[in-house]
Structures
1.
Amino acid sequence: MIKLNIFYPEKEGSRFDLDYYLNVHMPMAIEKLGPSLRGVSVEYGVSGVQPGTKRAYIALCNYTFDSAEAFLDAFLPHAELLQGDIPNYTDIEPIMQFSEIKISQG
């Protein structure tokens, strides 16, 4: 199993519309990625580890697929639509990475 991690770094003066992301973009992405999507989670950063410190990321999204190829097969037909929607919720350039899941517990 692989996970596609998408990180939206905290940047001074940046814009991130969490309501739009959760209620419009993510439902659309989940629907378009279809049955090969094994799991998804969205996290919203609240602070750094030390009380009162800045968060490193405004939001994180994790998609789980059987393989990177399975993700690409699901994503590429909808890439223009999904990537074209990004300006509707943020001006932050996301950082993306594939990770191989080694341990996972409910």
2.
Amino acid sequence: MELLQKLTLYDLFGYTLPGVIALLLYNGDLSYLADNLTLGGLVLLIVLGYVVGVVFTELADCIVCLLNKVLGDNMINKYWENICKIYGISDAKINDALQKAKLIESPLNDSAGAMARRYTTFMYSEIQADSQYSRLHNYASAELLYKNMVVVSVLAMGIGVGQQNMTEIIIGAVSVVLFARRWIRFAERSRGYAICWFVQKYDR
């Protein structure tokens, strides 16, 4: 039941909410929709919102992949090194945790950032399954929400351009910047805490 609740909140805020907002923006006539929305229509809106949210997530992930290719490995490695520096995670700590988790047999010569980048999926999966670190779900949900809201804001800005509405363009542009800042912040937190708690879990 606890897992179901987490998944429900995760889906609702991460996928469905941005998707519903995007559909409402695209519809345009909110007053008509509010006056004529039935229970069946509401269910359909939520389902379609979820689907649109999933599409937004895939689009955002494609954009991130493209940016990673443009920025190159130096910028990506710097990003991971910075996360390890912020959370005080050394290569020795990660090596020790990876060995205790039986993922590696002997210490690696890589930096903390390189190891964090390589094994982050395993670390996240290991921590996510532990109820002691349930806050990680909150950071991941927030990251997903703000990532999708960036796409929603771009859509809003595009609608403003199409309608030549300067107010909508400005609001959309400002929203892109603000939501992108939140996205980056929670991405750093979810990755940083996953690595930190992974190390903490095996630091016994």
3.
Amino acid sequence: MKNNAELQLDVQNAIKWEPLLHAAEIGVTAKDGVVTLSGVVDSYVKKTEAECAAKTVIGVKAIVENIEVIFPNSWNKSDVDVAKEVITALTVNYSVPNEKVSVKVEKGWVTLSGELPWNYQRESAYESIRHLTGVKGVTNSIKIKSESRDAIEKKEVEKAIARSWSIDDSDINVSVSGTTVTLRGTVNSWYQRDEAARIAWNTPGIWHVDNELIVDYYFSLVEQ
């Protein structure tokens, strides 16, 4: 079991291992599995990469992200220019029906809204703009409204999660209410938590996934 200092060092090393973050000044503190990230980076993509790197570390139960994005003067863009680049990026992304996505930009912060039939399209929209220069943050408010009329089968969601070699589904409970799937229980990594939700989102007819899975690496050690 890792103490606070060991977890802090592991997260620091995970962040330094990422090519984008070699020179980034990111502070890391850890207490009882809760990791806080702080500092300043020059792009939104670096901010998100730091968070993703921290999530890969075993023992991280929660992340508090206080990283600030500050651009060099030469990188600053008006909200109009950022909006134009966001719209262009969405337009050239063949997997996103961009006519169904609305864009708002305020002080470099981009908000996406609208309705799409699949979650992978919502995620693709986000991925296509998070690297753009001038973007300080993204709020992905796109809602999923499935075109499928099929009823969601709880057993099918459970089987889909169980098929994944990377997920220990022994303590994952699935419940279905209308077009919403809720995941409860305990997994041993952030990756498993996110992957379980991703698989659930692939269910035909789904509009919402309520991911209440708790990350606790030490729980799996005790169970073994």
